[in-house]
TrEMBL record:
It comes from Isachenkonia alkalipeptolytica. Residues 4-222 form the SGNH hydrolase-type esterase domain. It holds the Pfam family Lipase_GDSL_2. The keyword Hydrolase applies. This is SGNH/GDSL hydrolase family protein.
Length: 234
């Protein structure tokens, strides 16, 4: 089975995973909520060294942008993330600079190549459906790093951000609902988005097109990513 590593976007909570819309039995969901680029390395290393899998899909980087933003913009998130940091290892924290992000992402790719694994990279999705927001300016910078690494190492890259951007620009959606300043709402969103009807209602209530909260995918977003992955993975 193809091992699909990533954060809550791969896991599908809140929202829904793109893996729901891919061939059953071919892909294994290895997503975990809150994962960062540095945090992914030990999990991936364990899978590579103790498993017999040859193909991997890597979707990571959102939390390296999202967590610092939430920490800065919301006191409740800041307190929540400080509590999480106390039980996390150093390597599980988000990249604070482009240099740090590039180094950590390159280490993931080096690990895959060292063990001669096939890999497909998925770049970072929009961090909020308002494309002009500073969050997405940072996303584009980090995605340029991922693109450069993919080109240098000869790896396939799924440009999900470009697909989302094109879709959102066509619709000219100007409302910018983004993850609630209270972390408890993310838990509530997870419960409300278990069903496709629940996901649709969340998106409609917030006037969102591809996500349920500005980050986590609804069915339209998940289907779009699944289609792009299917085109790359033969």
């Amino acid at each position: 089975m193809i091992q699909c590593f990533g954060d809550s976007i791969t896991k599908g909570t809140p929202g829904v995973s793109y893996l729901k819309y891919l061939e059953k039995g071919k892909y294994q969901n290895q997503g975990t909520g809150g994962e960062t680029v540095e945090g992914l390395y030990p999990r991936l290393s364990h899978s590579i060294k103790h498993g017999k899998h040859e193909k991997y899909i890597i979707q990571i980087g959102t939390n390296d942008i999202l967590l610092p933003y939430l920490e800065k913009s919301s006191p409740k998130w800041k307190n929540r993330l400080r509590k999480i940091d106390k039980v996390k290892k150093e390597g599980a924290r988000p990249s604070r600079t482009e240099i740090q992000f590039q180094k950590s992402y390159q280490e993931i790719v080096d690990l895959l190549k060292e063990h001669e694994k096939e890999a497909v990279l998925i770049n970072i999705p929009v961090v909020g459906e308002n494309l002009s927001h500073e969050r997405n300016k940072k996303t584009e910078k980090f995605n340029n790093i991922i693109k450069a690494i993919a080109e240098k190492e000869g790896l396939l890259l799924v440009d999900f951000y470009a697909w989302q951007k094109k879709t959102l620009e066509k619709l000219q959606n100007k409302k910018d609902y983004f993850i609630d300043p209270d972390p408890k709402q993310v838990v509530i969103d997870g419960l409300k988005s278990i069903t496709s009807l629940g996901r649709m209602r969340l998106s409609q209530k917030r006037n969102l097109v591809l996500t349920v909260d500005g980050v986590h995918l609804n069915d339209t977003g998940a289907k779009g990513l699944a289609k792009l992955v299917r085109e790359k993975v033969k």
